[in-house]
Amino acid sequence: LITIVDYGLGNIGAFVNVYKRMNIPTIVARDVDSLKDATHIILPGVGSFDHAMELLNSSGMREALDNLVKSGGVSILGICVGMQILATSSEEGVTSGLGWVEGSVKDFSTHSQYSSLPLPHMGWNDVIPVSYSPLFKGLEKDAQFYFLHSYYFYSDSPVIAAEANYGFNFVCAVNSGNVYGVQFHPEKSHHWGALILKNFAEI
Amino acid sequence: MLRPRIIPSLLIHQGGLVKTVEFKAPKYVGDPINAVKIFNEKEADELIVIDIDATVKGVEPNYKVIADLAAECRMPLCYGGGVKTSEQAKKIIGLGVEKIAISSAAIENPNLIADIAEQVGKQSVVVVLDVRKKKGLFSKGYELCTHNASIQIKNYGLLEFARLAEKLGAGELVLNSVDRDGSMNGYDLHLAKQIRSAVSIPLTMLGGAGSLEHLSELIKCCGVIGVAAGSLFVFKGKYKAVLINYPSLGNKTELMESLPSS
Asked: Closest to A166 (Cβ–Cβ): which among B2, B75, B203?
């Protein structure tokens, strides 16, 4: 069962609606009990890294999610800040991330190749797959996705699934075992985003 | 590469969708939810929806209408109208809206920008500046106004306030030209250039677009920018028949060719 974690951040309704149109059932989890039937977990998120971690840590679901992810029994997809908190830390804050994916989150404006482009990185951009990921199965070459962020995921381990370019190439999708993350918003990226969410449901 | 955002801007007045000229004479053009459905089908980049009654009447945002719009909308949605507190902003974001637009409340109390950014993140804070050319024989430049252009702002200059908004945590500026509203004569490119060089957050221009050529001019002038329009996307032909429309993916790809080479 597709389970959308509602810890107070992100557009929960948008995910529910996208799956509803595809006739894929979902539930919204606000406590540990409602995680018990999860096979696929969606971890949304907007706003700042620390705020997201604080809300998740105090949601009562953190430990259960840790256990589910480590047991390997579920697939999990982090979206936007929900992807960033998969990392161990962020330059945006001081709180530790979930550490489910090797990497850290960095500030666009301090990158050596950042050339005073407007921030946040806002709008529709290309996504360049760099390694096979089931998320991108059947995706058109000219697919575009909606981005809205000022920090990016950095990793030098083989978890990188796709990159996008904004002054320089940055990681916009990761995959480490049963953990997936995308920086863009598939729930607001028309038919391209719907395909990503459908692919995730079929993993 | 990042594309310019082509954004229909929808005005809500007395529950219906309207289009104004110079912020006046609202003409009924249809039902808001129906319009959102059509823009879904056309895969619009983003939508801006502004309730033009809320601030003038001093009423709360209509949360029921916002929730209905957000549930229907399959693209990023920016809502504005009557937002005065960070609690209201948080509630609206919770309804499934991506961005909150504030205008008069931000000019009356600029710290509201910081408050809302703190609550919902700066990426979701849009400051809309209603701007018109100064009138009078010896006046030049632009002035800010609020309340559907009925109140003129004297304590801030345009560029001064744009920079202040950026500093306080605005994630985007929308420049709404009163003089060009509904004119369909093209964007105020001079205004666009001034603001683009004054701030380094994303910028969206609204007011004056009457053809794809006008969109192309703005992109040529300012590069990757938000290209918003009302009349262009709700009227068709020289008699301005109401017909919701939006550039095709092919049109949009052609518009990309207007981008200045970096």
From this structure: B2
